[in-house]
Amino acid sequence: MDVKTEVLGMINDLFLEDVSDMMDEDLFDAGVLDSMGTVELVLEIEAKFNIKVPVSEMGRDDWNTANKIIEGIKELQNA
Amino acid sequence: MMNWLQELPNWQPYGDPQYFIYLLVALIPVVVALLFGKRIKWYEGLVSLAFIVLMFAGSHWQQFIALIGYIIWQAVMVFGYAKYRQKADNKWVFYGAVFLDVLPLAIVKITPAVTMGQNSLLGFLGISYLMFRSVGMLMEMRDGVLKEFTFGQFLRFMLFMPTLSSGPIDRFRRFTEDYETVPDRDKYLGMIEKAVHYLFLGFFYKFILAYIFGTLLLPGLEHEALVAGGLINWPTIGVMYAYGFDLFFDFAGYSLFAVTISYLMGIETPMNFDKPFMAKNLKDFWNRWHMSLSFWFRDFIFMRLVMVFMRHKVFKNRNVTSGVVYVLNMTIMGFWHGVTWYYISYGIFHGLALVINDWWLRYKRRHKKQIPHNKFTEGFAIFLTFNIVMVSFLLFSGFLDQLWFHNH
């Protein structure tokens, strides 16, 4: 499975929301993510992709849309 | 040796109209240079230094010594940890660095509580805000997102004059990027326009509205309430609203000034308030009230505690985790305000209220169909949130300490 499918699946499992039709929408504004949810998602991502996500990067400007999260993961995988 | 400092006048930041005139005149060269795409770093440094010295001059001169001592202490922590972090990443070293960084502030906060109101010699105006900035740097170094910076950048960030005394609390990487890139002319003109608007809004808030609530209304109401006595009385309700509005207009006014001066210096310091009394629930309120502080607590305390608890699976249930961390987070914030029963209970009050708020939001989500949602329920939610916040401010004000325990 590619990163996109994995991430969408995680969001679906954790927050019971399908965000596939709003890939560039701010997930905090949309009420999908909050601080608590962000940490849950980070822990899932770290376990699944075997990467370390710096919590400071989870700021609301950097990881606030599905597409940005996917980009961020790809960057960390290549780092 | 420090006679020269005692001889100088003391200028509290944004204290009176004259302060603005001197500061704005001093900033004219900075503004002109920025309009031509240049930043005269040495001149900015000089103006900042002069106004910081005047902030602590006269009878406050001891605070100036405390400030210098604290900056040296923090420089040792930040650069010491930066050097260590290049080679290793032991979590206990990180905790140790954060502990030592916070230690002087903790001493300053605890001293009055254990000495019947004596102030620590280590304290000075703005010490908390310096701590927030440097601890933020330590956290970002630990995460590996902040690696290289110079001593000059560190000093400029820590001692940024417009926000030195009471924030807003900026973040090192955001601030330094602003400082190192000069905004283009269109963008800078837009910032000046906003600055002018914020300046006048700030005048209206601080010198008119805060004056009405804090200076004209509040003392009379307090007097009546104390005369009436008892656990609670009508004038105390008046004190609650007058104090709440005074607190908001005074601090929001100050914050607007700090943002205004930052913008004129080409730095987009974050805003501190976003119509907090229009919040629909308490969570929403903390996204609108003293935002740079509540976001600092969210990013550096709430999220990190949640991370630790979840990683070690301390609680099975996610809602228990978030509830415990809400209470911890807000109680720490209460302690930061000061070690008194009313600040601490203010923190616990907000922690517990956030737990209830969170429970309600989950319940609402599960029963979307049964619970009506319209303009009326939204208006009621705003009304309820506003009043809960006002009750918490009455606690925060310390007035109940006078009313109940006669500590005048």
UniProtKB/TrEMBL annotation, chain A:
Q: Which UniProt keywords apply?
A: Cell wall biogenesis/degradation, Cytoplasm, Ligase, Phosphopantetheine, Phosphoprotein
UniProt subcellular location: Cytoplasm
Q: How is it modified after translation?
A: 4'-phosphopantetheine is transferred from CoA to a specific serine of apo-DCP.
Q: Which GO terms describe its cellular component?
A: cytoplasm
Kindly report the protein's main subcellular placement as a broad class: cytoplasm
Q: Which Pfam families match?
A: PP-binding (PF00550)
Q: Which organism is it from?
A: Weissella cibaria
What protein name is recorded for this chain?
Answer: D-alanyl carrier protein
Question: What SUPFAM superfamilies does its record include?
Answer: ACP-like
Query: The organism sits in which domain of life?
Result: Bacteria
**Pathway per the UniProt entry:** Cell wall biogenesis; lipoteichoic acid biosynthesis
| Gene Ontology molecular functions | D-alanyl carrier activity; ligase activity
The family assignment reads: Belongs to the DltC family.
Q: Which residues carry this modification: O-(pantetheine 4'-phosphoryl)serine?
A: 35
Q: Which GO terms fall under biological process for this protein?
A: cell wall organization; lipoteichoic acid biosynthetic process
Q: Which InterPro entries match?
A: ACP-like_sf (IPR036736), DltC (IPR003230), PP-bd_ACP (IPR009081)
Q: Ranges for the Carrier domain?
A: 1-77
